[in-house]
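General statements about sequence and structure are easier to judge against a single worked case. No coordinates are needed to read the tokens, only the vocabulary itself. The sequence in question and its structure tokens are set out directly beneath this paragraph.
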Amino acid sequence: MFKTKLGLLYLLFFLAIGFYIGSNLESFLYDRKIEQNVEKFNEVLNYTTKYYLEEVDTTKLVEDAIRGMLKDLDPHSVYISVEEQKEAEEIFKGNFEGIGVEFQIVNDTITVVSPISGGPSEAVGILPGDRIVKIEGKDAIGLTNNQVIKKLRGEKGTKVNITVVRPGLDEPVEFTIVRDEIPIHAVDVGMLFNNDIGYVVLTRFSETARKELIEELSELRKSGMEKIILDLRNNPGGLLQQAFEVSDVFISGTKLIVYTKGRLPDFDEEFNAQQQYIYEKFPLIILVNKGSASASEIVSGAIQDWDRGLIVGETTFGKGLVQRPFILEDNSAVRITVAKYFTPSGRAIQRDYENKDKKKYYEEVLKRSEKEGENLEHSAESDSTRPVFFTKGGRKVFGGGGITPDFIVKNKELTESSLELLKAGTYYQFVRNYLDKNRSKLKREYPDLFSFTQNFNFTDNDFSKFISLAKSNAKEKISEEELKKDKKYILTRLKAHIAREFWKNEGWYYNLLKVDEQFKKAIRLFDEEKEFFEGKF
């Protein structure tokens, strides 16, 4: 009897072991497969390092192999070097350490575009237009952008000595600047238009995005804001948490804002509105374009799905994949796609990337063609093979290709010659020369932004000088006829550069928005679409 019981226990034990091995066999085999492939990679690396014709950089070989491995997964799973990872962390955290200047290389010379407000350069008296000719006593002429950044950035509390040539002064000026933490703002500007429309530009979804947005909206509300335009154009995204929090500012109750689904349940999450904000009841229009991606699409998708506001502009980029960063031992990182995100109606924003190399994937956005006009019922996508979803109000919307606006509006497309000048920095160089000669006169004649915007204009002679500079600067052949076609845009942009010199970002946007068709349409829609906004909130 005892032997029978013992035999039964042995049988149950071995059955349990067999069941465990069987149920975990796939995992065992999978781990073994990884191990074998790692061994294979190490063999090739060792043979190459030992026997290749020339001496090789093993670090570069490994990094290239990692990039090659990720290349075939999806367009957004990437390897990030130590230097790139540090820069990315600075952007997401919303600060970096340095002297705090925006600069541009003009004729091989570091030219200060603007000292960053509240930064150490502004504190010691660095001015827009200053030319930095020496850093730590060494000639700074001919440095590249990256070389300048490396020399001027550094740990908080460290010092750097620079020599500046300032127009109007006979002798160079020496400055000692103590590096400090420099904020990278998520909100570029907040302004009031027509006495009641608050216009806010959100450029990135860094850690401070919601906080900065609330602060800006609060100031605008004190000035009489009753309607909101949130500009997400060319905002590439950022932190998923911030996308949710920014959406929460405008979406009431506990409504679903976004959810994620991955292969592993660990990456499945839902984000619902939590806090109550007064801005949930303000009529809202969001501006988007081809450069609006990821977190920008989460916000505009949630607003559209709940019929909370209108989306105006061009169809967004179409990035709906969630990346998780994994930091490696040397502080480099891999950003691996772990999930897709979905808007409240259930639509995936990610556009198709199968069987496309990265170059084609990014280029197809630039080649996208859309018909302008009202698109409230989304008939612009009606011939699409993309899946159909419905907003809270029953309007059709489509998944799998970004967020298509409720009103498709394009800004004027510039000629090739004008685009070439943007790349060459000709606008800024012309303005710099103009300001060197006319700064005092401009300050005297135009005491405020409004008087400057209303009364200042470049002359035909100024435009002719700009064309001459453009021809001498451009690496590619410049067409004078093309520049004349873009004359209104060119002169407005030059004017905006000057306004920025005196009134910072407010001056820049206040002037550029004069030729911004998407913005002008948004302003009109508050009146044209009263029935859309009435009774919604």
User: Anything to note?
Assistant: Confidence is low (pLDDT under 50) at residues 9-15, 25-30.
